[in-house]
Amino acid sequence: MNNLLAFFSSSIGRKVLIAITGLLLVLFLIAHLIGNLLFFLGPDSLNSYAAALKGNPALLWSARIGLLTVFVLHLMNALALAMQNRAARGVQYQNKGYMAATAASRTMVITGLVVLLYVAYHLSHFTLGLTNPDHFSMHDAQGRHDVYGMILHGFQIPVVAWGYVAAMLVVAYHLSHGIQSSLQTFGLRNENYTPCVKQFSVFLALLLCLGFSSIPLAVQFGLVG
Ligand code: HEM
Asked: Does the pTM of the predicted model rise above 0.90?
């Protein structure tokens, strides 16, 4: 047990933990996107999907607690590793002609914190109903929580819709480096794999960005509702 704790407190252990939790969060995003795209099938599909998710509170709360744990572990270890690296470096580099580091890799802490702020707003908006309680309290004809109406009304507010699109760009930027870095931590790092891993990461990040952004954009351009 002590050995395991010592490993996960070392910088390689932290990197492994960040990689595992990062990939789990990407899996959550893929599942969340697939669920959200039911929006395009209309109110009945999305509302019955949301009602089914909430129909099993034990499962829902286990998943929520699991997701929160993964998110906190990812965040805390990423911040701890960034501080460890900074302390180990001691003095700042004189020559900032970064070799392998890309802009996305150098700004992971900043983009990560922006994603954290976005998630805090997103949960207040759609999960807790704090920002727009009037949208949150709607029910459909069958008496189910009207998740479709909540999203539609939310994204009819231009600043909300465009704010979401901007946040999705930051999420994609974070993931474009995060996915490849995680996969490389698991050993996909050599001349054969590295270019494919990079392309795959950028592709998946863009796909998630386009998928999520399609909803506020469709509402803003009057294609649904
Ligand atoms: C247009 C994009 C998105 C839409 C329309 C959307 C929609 C929703 C909705 C409706 C809920 C509440 C589900 C419910 O309680 O019935 C939710 C929950 C959540 N969303 Fe999103 N989401 C989007 C993007 C994202 C992104 C990019 C992230 C992460 C970076 C995210 C993270 C979460 C989390 C963590 C929850 C809480 C899950 C739970 O309540 O169990 N969402 N989202």
From this structure: yes
